[in-house]
Design a protein that fits this description.
single chain, 6-stranded parallel beta sheet, 407 residues, alpha/beta, 37% helix
Length: 407
């Protein structure tokens, strides 16, 4: 079950409703940052090359020639204009837009904006309050800055790829573009911090979000483990080594995820197993001992869970306060009453699909809620609104710019 998203009233337009964001770049890292800001109410103006557009408009599992079902998510809550930044006229128009903007997001290879005479020196001189968010594979500085850097490469360099997968196989990957998305989240976080700094000082700044560093930032104690202990994390499949019990366990008719690695929670699991003595057993009585005997403990728990049906096991664990759950696929999410109650998935109005279900906004803000207000735009859909309204270019000039391929 899902709920239909409706436009927010003017009093709840979102926490960033007074901000204007220019989104350059394509694919995921920059545009997902723009999506997050748009969800929070910012006016996000996506700038695309005339006649080309973001490849995300065409990516996804759909058949060739049919509308992308990915673009409506990453393009939501945005306006779209076309502009050729390789032409001098396009660069001049872009600078006019920057003079009226709060944030610019770009995810080109470092030096691209400078090549177009639209680097930080030029833009900050025009608008000292501007915040320039720069997302790239390796960051704006350092010996690798000019290398091509996709999300998967950042995941590998940041340490994630090495530890994902089964120990007897080559490194695997997470099933989504996690490196790009982590960089986008860090870029958005950096932009919000820069806004707070601007409130205090009146000055904008550059936010430099590297994909590999965004991944590295999520790697917990991986570096300090090696630095102090010489320990190298290895691939471990469905478990975290020495964190037990926390695994996927078999049932009579499926599998269940159980996390009971804290002492008090493990004691409750032992009660559910009708084996309270295990919580006092020297092999399992604390975090370290359970970690040292992880395989043996998992085998013991698996032997017990395999005697119960999935629903019976989940009900039993819930009564004992043991964290547990199913491993969801999309159909499970759509059928789940908790998803429905919190409207975690909503049916949005869409000009091509009629209605389209997608994930709702996150996180939730109580006083200035975010929302899905508008569907992803067609390429150049807002040219007249932005060039005619915001910049005041008359219809004749806009026609000339279109004819020259500038917009």
């Amino acid at each position: 079950m899902s709920h239909t998203a409706t436009p927010s009233p003017s009093s709840t337009r979102g926490a960033l409703a007074d901000l204007r964001v220019l989104e350059l770049g394509t694919l995921i890292a920059g545009p997902f940052c723009g999506q997050l800001m748009g969800d929070m109410g910012a006016e996000v103006i996506k700038i695309e090359a005339p006649g080309q557009g973001d490849p995300m408009r065409h990516w996804g599992p759909q058949a060739a020639g049919t509308p992308s079902v990915w673009w409506p998510v990453i393009g939501r809550n945005k306006k779209a204009i076309t502009l050729d930044l390789r032409q001098g006229e396009g660069q001049s128009i872009f600078k006019d837009l920057c003079a009226k903007a709060d944030i610019v997001i770009e995810n080109f290879r470092p030096g691209t904006l400078e090549k177009w005479r639209c680097g930080w020196a030029e833009l900050s001189a025009l608008n000292p309050r501007l915040i320039l968010v720069r997302v790239s594979g390796y960051g704006q500085t350092g010996p690798y800055a000019q290398r091509a850097g996709y999300g998967g490469i950042g995941e590998a360099m940041g340490g994630l790829r090495y530890i994902v997968g089964e120990p007897d196989r080559p490194p695997s990957r997470v099933g989504i573009s996690i490196g790009d998305s982590l960089a986008a989240v860090h870029a958005c976080m950096g932009a919000l911090a820069a806004l707070h700094h601007r409130d205090r000082t009146g000055a904008g700044q550059v936010v430099d979000a590297a994909i590999y560093e965004s991944v590295l930032n999520m790697m917990e104690s991986l570096v300090t483990e090696y630095d102090q202990l010489g320990h190298v994390r290895e691939r471990s499949g469905p478990i975290l080594p020495r964190i037990a019990p926390s695994n996927v366990y078999p049932t009579l008719d499926g599998i269940v995820m159980i996390g009971a690695n804290q002492d008090t929670v493990f004691a409750r699991l032992c009660e559910a197993m009708q084996a309270p003595e295990l919580a006092r057993d020297e092999r399992y009585r604390d975090h370290q001992s359970r970690g040292a005997n992880q395989r043996e403990l998992d085998e013991r728990i698996s032997a017990w869970t395999a005697t119960l049906g999935t629903r019976e096991l989940l009900d039993l664990l819930e009564r004992h306060g043991v964290p547990s759950g199913l491993i969801y696929r999309t159909a499970d999410m759509l059928a789940d009453p908790h998803f429905a109650a919190r409207e975690a998935i909503v049916a949005t109005a869409h000009p091509r699909f009629g209605t389209l279900r997608m994930q709702n906004v996150a996180p939730r803000l109580s006083a200035s809620p975010s929302a899905i207000r508008t569907p992803a735009p067609e390429i150049g859909q807002h040219n007249d609104e932005i060039y005619g309204g915001l910049l005041g270019l008359d219809a004749s000039l806009r026609a000339q710019l279109r004819a020259r391929g500038v917009i």
